Amino acid sequence: MTQPAPIGFVNLLRNIGPGVVVSGSVVGSGELLVTTRMGAEVGFVFLWGVMVASVVKYFIQLELGRQCLLRDDTTITALDRVPGLRLGRASWAAWVCVVGYFSVFISVIGILGTVGGLLETVVPAVHNKVWDAAVFVLVAGLLWRGAYADLEKMVTLLVAVFSLIVFGSLIALQGTPNAMSAAEIASGFAFAMPADGAFVALAVMGSVGATAVELFMYPYWLREKGYPRFIGPDDGSPEWRARYRGWMRVLALDAGVCTGIALLITCAYYLLGASVLSRLEVLPSGVGVVDQVSLIFTETLGPTAKGVFMFGAFCTLFSTLLVFAASSGRIGADFLHLLGVKAARDEAGRMRLAKILQTAFPAFWLLVILLYAETPFLFVLLGANSNNLLLVPLAYAVLHLAMREKGERRMSMWGELGLMVTLWAIINFTAVNLYLTWTK
């Protein structure tokens, strides 16, 4: 049922939500693990790169969301409209991006193993593999209900807790021997590309901000929130145009909040890593990676803060698992529907299949991490690099879709320019760091 868009900033804020759910996945392994590792490895010099990686995908998120509002498109159906080679019933763009999406599973496998290692640190009497299985059961149980409202509230709480802990530690940092100087922060804007950290820099682009995977998820949460339904099909009427413009304002704010959360928390974690871990010469790795990262809190807030940090870290990583599993089920069912699989032909069938997949995928993650339990952080880095490579075809496809629209349905000139700059920045960033990694 259609409804007019809210008016006034406060009412706009009350109607956002999908971006917060995406933030629950964005604010996760990238910030907690990869960004702190980058700070530990190269110090302050890459602050500019962390900021670019956090904000550069905003226009991709905005355009994917706009395509959803215009046509009630999921990401899969939008990509299927990209012309060119078709494999079976799907376009090349849909195939490439779906394969890229599921290649990022390696990162989520690493996150599951990291959560198990975190819980083993807290309760050493229970092996990390047992904790991995317990976390899988908890994720599967929570998602089986499939209620969007519950998921949104849960993730909002987890992100809020995580954010408060991070910023509290960053403020306290300035009262310790590890306090940042103005010169150190300024060195982060020299636009240097550190060769020693090139492999991790690629992972940073792939794992902070609204990454390719979170961008892929975004239209699914928009549909569940109801934005396309509130606008209704395009009948060419002035009422439809008013509803479209109004809900686009909500969408722009929603995506902006997602980007802002990611930027602030990513920078906070990077600065903590550069200030504490780099000076202590600690490079987080292995099953106990979260325990090593906890130094950014214990060295600023004191040893008693470790328990608080472990709780915040669990909230962060668990929210990533929760949102990724929920989204993967929906995306998997949607792609099977596109391919003509009988079980996914109608809406009810897709919902049943999504429920099955959002349990089956985490079961697969559990199986892999039980076999390779000692290398979770390497999995996180490899998956983050896959996420980075996925950005290139996704950004191209979104730019192509944006420029095919006509009249009022077309993105603004500034939006299209932003998409072009985004694609240029991602390609150049990836090419330079691949070269530095290869020649190191």
Q: Shape, please?
A: globular
Query: Percent of residues in helical segments?
Result: over 70%
Main β sheet profile? 2 strands, antiparallel
What portion of the residues fall into strands of 2 or more residues? under 5%
Q: Give the integer mean of the pLDDT values.
A: 85
Report the end-to-end length measured between terminal Cα atoms. 58 Å
Radius of gyration: 21 Å
Total strand segments: 2
Element order, helices and strands?
A: HHHHHHEEHHHHHHHHHHHHHHH
Helices, by number, come to: 21
What count of domains describes the coordinates? 1
Low-confidence stretches: none
Class per helix and strand makeup: mainly alpha
Q: How is the largest sheet built, in terms of strand order? A: 1-2
> Based on the structure given, which CATH architecture is correct?
Up-down Bundle
Question: What is the class in the CATH system?
Answer: Mainly Alpha
CATH third-tier fold name: Amino acid/polyamine transporter I
Describe the structure.
The chain is mainly α. The chain has one domain: Amino acid/polyamine transporter I. The chain contains 21 helices and 2 strands. A hairpin with a 2-residue loop joins strand 1 (86-87) and strand 2. The protein is globular, with a radius of gyration of 21 Å. The mean pLDDT is 85.
What is the topology?
Blueprint: H1 9-14, H2 18-26, H3 29-42, H4 47-55, H5 58-71, H6 75-79, E1 86-87, E2 90-91, H7 92-103, H8 105-122, H9 128-144, H10 148-173, H11 182-187, H12 198-207, H13 212-225, H14 227-231, H15 238-280, H16 289-293, H17 295-301, H18 306-338, H19 347-371, H20 376-404, H21 413-439
Antiparallel strand pairs: 1-2
